[in-house]
Amino acid sequence: MNAHNVVHMPNAQEVEQAKISSRALSKYADADRVQLSLRGSNGETDDMVLSGAVLQLLLDVLAEMSKGNAVSLIPHHQEVSTQEAANLLNVSRPFLVGLLESGKIPFRKVGTHRRVLLTDIQSYKQGIAKDRSEALDELAALSQEEGMGY
């Protein structure tokens, strides 16, 4: 992943500050836009307007940080290596390469290296989740029909 994809593990003070900030901002979660006044420790001040979508993203980041979780922001058009894609899907790299070569996930080659769009990984992951949910629904329906009591 490239240099602007920063992963930061929050320390205890940042976790506490994230909790406070999240509570304050959550009052505005339903707003289509918010105006913020900023005052930095360097004496700088600014006013800005954030859309509701940006506010929701900020709330999501703060919620994760308040739990002590690291957060990484990755643009949707970002390409990842096969190892990074395998990590995102929680599979081995050879298994992922098999998915790529079978055409289940699109990819492109840069020299000898395969690159996969993050959006394609997410689409595949959503498809797997949907298939799994449908299979469980079908199993539950069959169990009901057979009187298995599930």
Average pLDDT score:
88
The multimeric state of the shown protein is single chain
Secondary-structure element string: EHEEHEEHHEEH
Unreliable spans:
none
The percentage of residues in β strands lies in 15-25%
Q: What is the topology, as strand order, of the major beta sheet? A: 5-7-6
Annotation, overall tally of beta strands: 7
Q: How many strands, which pairing sense, and closed or not: the largest β-sheet?
A: 3 strands, antiparallel
Radius of gyration: 21 Å
Head-to-tail CA distance between termini: 45 Å
Categorize the overall geometry: extended
Which secondary-structure class do the elements indicate?
alpha+beta
Helix proportion:
40-55%
Report the total helices.
5
Provide a short characterization of the protein structure:
With 150 residues, the protein is an alpha+beta fold. The chain has helices at 12-26, 52-66, 82-89, 93-101, 118-145; strands at 7-8, 33-39, 45-51, 71-72, 79-81, 108-110, 113-117. The chain has five helices and seven strands, in the order E-H-E-E-H-E-E-H-H-E-E-H.
Keywords:
19% strand, 150 residues, 50% helix, 5 helices, alpha+beta, 3-stranded antiparallel beta sheet
